[in-house]
Amino acid sequence: MEKLLYTGKAKQMWQTEDPEVLRVVYLDQATALNGKQKDHFAGKGQAAKAISDLVFGYLIDHGIETHFIKQLSPTEDLVKKCEMVPLEFVTRNVVAGHFASRYGLAEGQVLAAPVEETFYKSDQLDDPFINNSAAVGLQLATPAELDRMWDLCRQVNALLTPLFAKAGMQLVDFKLEFGRLGDGYIVLADEFSPDNCRLWDTATKDHLDKDVYRRHLADLTTTYETVFTRLQAALKEEA
Known about the structure:
Elements: E1 3-7, E2 11-15, E3 21-26, E4 29-32, E5 37-40, H1 44-61, E6 68-73, E7 76-80, E8 83-84, E9 87-94, H2 97-102, E10 110-120, H3 132-137, H4 143-166, E11 169-180, E12 186-189, E13 197-201, H5 211-214, H6 220-238
Antiparallel strand pairs: 1-2, 2-3, 3-7, 4-5, 6-7, 8-11, 9-10, 9-11, 11-12, 11-13
């Protein structure tokens, strides 16, 4: 019998008959301010999952090891069970969001090199910034694991920046999370959707991510469906 293990801000994790496999259910829910703001959007879970499945499939095809196994339904996936590393790895290609306000900068400046930031995953603490020595000292990750995770982040950035550009979107920034398989091996986990990345229309600079919800700019589900349609077309063109 399946057992609900965890309900997060956008997904549920269910135990399956296989102890090494979990069922993920994407929810029609969006949150901001680390869950302090929460709203329901019909179809949002399906749209976010569709995008993430496309991205994870593309990354797997290009040698990135992930927890993804297969799709079950429009809102469900099977994934490998992981012990999640309680860190968030953020890569920034363009000045936006908190990075802009933190340094008193206008949004939109392309950075001379990608900026890499690590945060301790804790809604209660508002995900504070953490450096490598603190992560190691607190036994959240080893130096070798940190090296591997950042190497994977760089590979993902190198793969997805041109893919989204082909789809008429600028990959402004993104957040990745990682997990340890049963043998301790690190793989890319969680998801990749406009919930955890910023995408701007290349021509108009319109937001095509969760900022449309945070800033009350457009309908969230419709925006995600636009991202999916563009990304799917770009992948078909590439195939």
